Amino acid sequence: MSASNLLQYGVFLAVVTVLVKPLGGYMARVFSGGRTFLDPLLCPLERRLYRMTGVDPDDEMDWKRYATAFVLFSLTGTLLLYALLRLQRFLPWFFPGSQTAPVTPDLAMNTAISFATTTTWQAYAGESTMSYTSQIAGLMVQNFLAGASGLAVGVAFIRGLAREQTSRIGNFWVDMTRSLLWVLLPISLLGSLVLVWQGVPMNWHEYTQAKMLDGGQQIIAQGPVAGFEIIKNLGTNGGGFFNANGAHPYENPTPLANFFELLAIAVLPAAFTNTFGRMIGRPRQGWLLYCVMMVLLIPGLVLCGWAEQRGNPRLKRIPGLAATMAHKQPGGNMEGKEVRFGIGGSALTAVVTSNGATGSTNSQHDSYVPLGGAIPLVNMLLGEIVFGGLGTGLYSIVMIALVGLILGGLMVGRMPEYLGKKIGPCETKYVTLYVLAGPLAILPLTAVALMTKAGLAGLATNTGEHGFTEILFAFASCFANNGQSFAGLNANTVFYNFTTAAVMMAGRFALAIPVLALAGLLASQIRRQEAINAVPTDGVLFGGLLVATALIVGGLSFFPALSLGPILEHLILK
Fold first, then answer.
1. Which residues make beta-bridge pairs with 418?
2. Cα 312 to Cα 572: distance, rounded to the nearest angstrom
3. In Å, how far are 162, 455, 469, 495 from 472, measured between CA atoms?
């Protein structure tokens, strides 16, 4: 691997680390009622919104009311988006000559669920399917709302750990409103200006017809891209304005734009670990979780970059073909990659987006070598524990930490505890439901797709072990609410539109509801003095336990499936 790629990785991780503390402290003040520099501007607007909607900001909810509000809000957004997509032909800024692909009922249903759950799985090409009204009033609005509601659930979970002897974990409407007004909107406004500066268009023009040198014509899509692009990354959504997503020069025109968009993906979920430490009154706990995330991220990043730089071993056997890096060529596996970003920028994006529950890609993962393509897949199967989505990443890694404590408690014969809260039988049941949700949603539907004509019909390009990986990748991406795909799978069919939608809803609600229930149980407990002989949960030993638990749980659940896909393909390719 080249020194320039390693430098790029190091600079990115260093910038994220530097931003963790200030952004984490800012979000802690936002959700704890502290003062921020935006209060004079936003507090009057917040109060007016509460009066208009009839929300009492002092009326805190127990976990059942909080979960009900979260689910109903998400479902309402899904229904409204479905209606907008079905009616887009009758709404403004629809260009019949350009938006030629129909939005069928099953595709509209899949897309509405996709954007309402922050998955943004796209079984369509944006520039030929969605009007500007659908993109902005529908999809972009859901990027804001779904991201804010996920962040609200994460805040409620933190309160469950921080509070004691209460059934209240906050008000969903207040948490979501503050997520929008204080976090997502201000950063999105500034970020969109940065993208416009870098060359991302922000217009409402009709598509441009350009005459080519050979006399033909090319249709160049236009649109309000910059506003859409920043929130798709900041809200850990990832659905592209164009079919090529972050590889399209209008979405991602320069290496600096690529670097900035990756920061938008990672920085808020990473900083939320610091918010967690501050809100529970133990900053070291937040830094430990962040360090564990780095320990899990860096090996995957280096391995993915190395595998792609090493290239396809079969090509090296061709006489006269130079596949190694030199001053006149990048070497390695450049198939499916943009020359603007090269292998280093492509691998960095692949790893960050697959860890960050965003799915915004700038290269074709279907064209990666088996080992390189396996890294994004493994990242998603581990369950959003590195950065993850807004709010979801934090509670995902804490839930894995609780699994480690439960297993450790079983080995030494004592009831586990975390932050002075006992993890008893009831709490263990919710943790178990959380851990089992992924395998129970992903593996059976992968098997069904492999055994049915409807499922196998989606393999338009590849079969065998690579085709298996495409199907497994699709369901893993949908459950992780990530949305990226191998793209060799034709997913716009009735079978995949319904099955992926079911997995997306499981990945959103089958995880968030047990998390909120656990938060309610923990909030009702009395915080106890931690035992003298208990394992400190802010030290290196606990960090090692957390890393080992994540790998063991993921391996036990998914290693057989990985063996039939990328691992087998890697061994055959050698």
1. 421
2. 12
3. 38, 11, 5, 15
